[in-house]
Every structure is written in C-alpha cells, then in structure tokens.
Amino acid sequence: MTDEATAFVPGHVTGFFSAHPHEDPARAGSRGAGIALSHGVRVTVRRADDGTEADSETTLNGESVAMPPVGGVRERLGVPGAAVDAETPLPLGSGFGVSGAMALGTAYAANAVFDRRLSENALVAAAHCAEVEAGTGLGDVVGQARGGLPIRLEPGAPDHGAMDGVPARPRVEYLAFGEVSTEEVLSGDTAALTRAGERALADLRERPTPDRLVALSRRFAREAELTTDRVESVVANVRAAGGDAAMAMLGDTAFAFGTALSDAGYDPVVCDVHRAGSGLVSE
Amino acid sequence: MTDEATAFVPGHVTGFFSAHPHEDPARAGSRGAGIALSHGVRVTVRRADDGTEADSETTLNGESVAMPPVGGVRERLGVPGAAVDAETPLPLGSGFGVSGAMALGTAYAANAVFDRRLSENALVAAAHCAEVEAGTGLGDVVGQARGGLPIRLEPGAPDHGAMDGVPARPRVEYLAFGEVSTEEVLSGDTAALTRAGERALADLRERPTPDRLVALSRRFAREAELTTDRVESVVANVRAAGGDAAMAMLGDTAFAFGTALSDAGYDPVVCDVHRAGSGLVSE
C-alpha cells in the first residue's frame, strides 16, 4: 500500500487497422499494426483527500479534463477516490493513443495505490474495456501494453486477443497537424476500412519489416479514404525525396521511420520505439 | 541486410513451474512464474567468413562452447553460417536461462543479419522449440521474450501458450553458488513437481504480487524436494532476519526482492527487473 504511484505508458500510433465491434468489450477491438513511442504519458494516481468520487479529479498537463476511459477504469477497479494526474508531450486527438495511455496508466498506478492485486492482463483488460466503451479507441491499449512495433493479430483484451510484433526498433519521426475524431470514424460505416485493414495485415505478416509497415499504412489510409490533405502533401514530398511516410490512425499526423521526414526538408518531432510496454515507474 | 547485429536478452529466473511435455516442441513447455533480470546476455551474430557451417562457431564470454539450442535456432532459421558471440555476467547452469537467452538472441540477431523477415512470435517460437528439443529448458524463452515478472499461464510457443505478468518492478538480489542439471531434473519423474507447480500458479493468480511470488517459489522448491543445502541455509537466515527468499529453478542459486539478502548479512549480486523483454540493440 502506498499513497501515490506513477506509471509510464508509451504513445501508440496505429498505421492500419480493421474494426471488430462486439457487445462484450473484452472481445471487441481491432486487428492492425502500429508503433509504441518513447514519447508517452506519465500517469500519477493518489488517493483523493476525502476518498470520494466528487474529489477525484483527472488532469492532463495540469488542466482538468473529461476523460471517460479514465472514469471507466476507476469504476472497473472499484477506486472512485483515485485522483489522476497525467503529463505528456503528445497532442490529444491526433492519433497517439493518449486516452488509452491515460486509461492504462490509471489502471497500473491505481492497482498499486489501492492494493487491488490484479495481474497485468487484468489491468490491460480494464483499460481496454473502458476505452472501447468510451468509443475513444479499439487497439491502442493492447499495443501500449506490449511496446515495440505491435501487430494485433486478433482483437480484444489479453484473454481473447492475440499479438505479434515486428522485430525492429527504428528511429521515429512525426509531424502532428491536428485532430481527427476517432468516435466519428468508428461510428460510421467501417466495411471498406476493415477490408483494407485485413489486406494490409495479411501483407505485413508475410514480411514483417518497418519499411513494409509504413508502405502498407500509406496504402491503407488511401484505400480507406482517411488521408487528410496535409498528410497527403507530406507523403507526396517524402516519396519524391526517395522516402516513405504514412498517416497516424486517427489524427492529422504524418509518421515515418529513420530520417524520411527530415530528408524531405521537414522539421519533425523525433523519438524512438518504446521497447518496454507499460508499467509502474515509482510507487 | 547487415553484416552484424546484436540482441539483448534478459536473464530469467524461474521461481516455480510445472512441466508439460508434448511431442510438438511448440506445444511443449511449462506453466509457472519468474523474473526477467536486467542482467542478461548480449548476442552478436555475423556471417561466418566462408558462410559454411564448419566456420560458424559459438562463443560465450570469448570461449568456444557447445550450445545445442543455438545450433537448433541456426537450423530452424536456415542460417548454418551464423557465427554467434555471446557475452554475459550470468553463470551458466545456475538457473538464469543463459541457454534460452543465447537461443533467443541468436534468433533476433540472425533474423536481421540474414534478412529472414520473421515476426517476433516466429523468432520466439524458433528459440523455444530449439531449447525444448535440446532439453535445456521449458519456459525461459517465453519469459525472456516478455520481460517483467512473467507468468506462464499455458505452456508453449506464442501461438499455443499464454502469458500474464505481476505488475511490479522490484529490485532483485541473488547469490549463485553453482550448477544443478536441468536435463537431469526434467528427464526424471516430474509428477510431484508438477502438482506443486500447479498449486503455486493457482495461488499466485489469486494475488499476483512480488512477495507472494517469492513465498510460493520457496514452498514449491520444498514440496518438489529441489532445495539445495546452501539455498536452504540462506532461506532460513533470511527468514530469521524477517525477509523471504527462494531458489532459482534450476540452479544452486538463491534470489529475493528488495534488500532481503543484504538485510540477512549476505553480499548478493544486485540487479533490476528487466522491463523490455528481448530485442535488437544494434544492427
């Protein structure tokens, strides 16, 4: 038992995906592939002063925020009095999995503070289900739990889903221009998106390399008609410079490996692939 | 394609286990729980000069060694000309999973050098099967691939097994006195061992904490009649000092969390839980 605990959860960029809704949130999710980033979210949980829900605020970079997946984790763990403070350099709503990271970080840290004695799979399941129920994501949480370049073979929380990974840890570059509404895309007709995502997954499994991950992500965004004008323009310039880039699902964000964005004259944010997945950093 | 690549694989101490043989090595393995250590094995693979098997040596800390699981990985990946050089501070045969680490590190690094384009699951499966066939281990490889405090829920390589984890990252202390033959124990009657291991697993799942992992490991070694005299004496002294310790499966090695060995007057080796699991560090 401890008064306060902090967890780190990597950001997660999805390159391509297929949506698999299910009435049981532990079986709902996505197939697809992405990148766990060394840029992530530090989530600190402490007991609210009077231990009641009324007092259990959620903040992001010092500002109070409404974050339904965090509320869902509080509920699933039975810790209404968990005050949650998150810090991140990543923009919200831009395809970096910040909501999933806040949910998963809350689960890890609240488990320590409130001595819930849950296993890693149970914590990941709580965050995944809270995120699915809030409609803010379908696959970030399981990718963030694994780290690396996660491939989601089967949708769902750990007891139902299945993961693999691309065995490489390249340098990552990204440019974040703004938001795309995950809720809007996921609540629309996802049939074409899912066909394109399934095809990309089959092709990545045949040859799981970073270059292929970017190329298939670029193809997916085009086939699913999700590419924004700004990302389209970045991709065209990067390809003209001999590199490759793709769009983060779902945000107005371009990403690439190595120096592809820099080589095309951009001034991207640079980070690494996060190796470790999520976990406590102090308790 | 690259001339040389290096992977890091954490050491892995098993605290308790049950043995599950199967004619298909991908389905054979163990249930149980353990610790991935920040002390591990760096494995460098390069193309042997003339690209033939005759030239593809395996060394450990500069000395030529016979290491059948490494040979098994070469065969499964179709890379007879992979020269393997491993460096580790961990003793061989003492319950730290050095053979599994060499097999898994060879798989990761050879995949990069020889452009085999395999996924992480395929690399883990190759190393797991090679280790099972060599009789040198049943569960280290999948624990080393995951990192943290891995729980093996179901035996086997990633397509067949299932993993969970204890969500904590405590400081680790250990004292390595010498070798215990894994082959000898695994080739004997494992019925009593497996009953004790299954019971420990059920109890850990009910309350997956580091303290419980040590207590259940201590009980397991006693029930399976594997505790050595030296470890027995360390455990007694640590418990007299108010702490707890257990034995590494399979080695004449005592381990504990926090400062339990130091507090009892020992001068243990100290390391951390390895968070990241295995992977390339350079290519």
UniProtKB/TrEMBL annotation, chains A, B:
Keyword ATP-binding: yes
Domain annotation GHMP kinase N-terminal: ranges: 73-148
Enzyme Commission number, as recorded: 2.7.1.169
Source domain of life: Archaea
Pathway(s) of this molecule: Cofactor biosynthesis; coenzyme A biosynthesis
Entries under Pfam families matching the protein: GHMP_kinases_N (PF00288)
Any one Gene Ontology molecular-function term assigned to this protein's record: kinase activity
Reaction catalysis annotation: (R)-pantoate + ATP = (R)-4-phosphopantoate + ADP + H(+)
InterPro entries: GHMP_kinase_N_dom (IPR006204), PoK (IPR012043), Ribosomal_Su5_D2-typ_SF (IPR020568), Ribsml_uS5_D2-typ_fold_subgr (IPR014721)
Keyword Phosphoprotein: no
Keywords for this protein: ATP-binding, Coenzyme A biosynthesis, Kinase, Nucleotide-binding, Transferase
PANTHER family xrefs: PANTOATE KINASE, PANTOATE KINASE-RELATED
Protein's job: Phosphorylates (R)-pantoate to form (R)-4-phosphopantoate in the CoA biosynthesis pathway.
Family per record: Belongs to the GHMP kinase family. PoK subfamily.
Protein name, per record: Pantoate kinase
Natural source organism: Halogeometricum salsisoli
Source species taxonomy: Archaea, Methanobacteriati, Methanobacteriota, Stenosarchaea group, Halobacteria
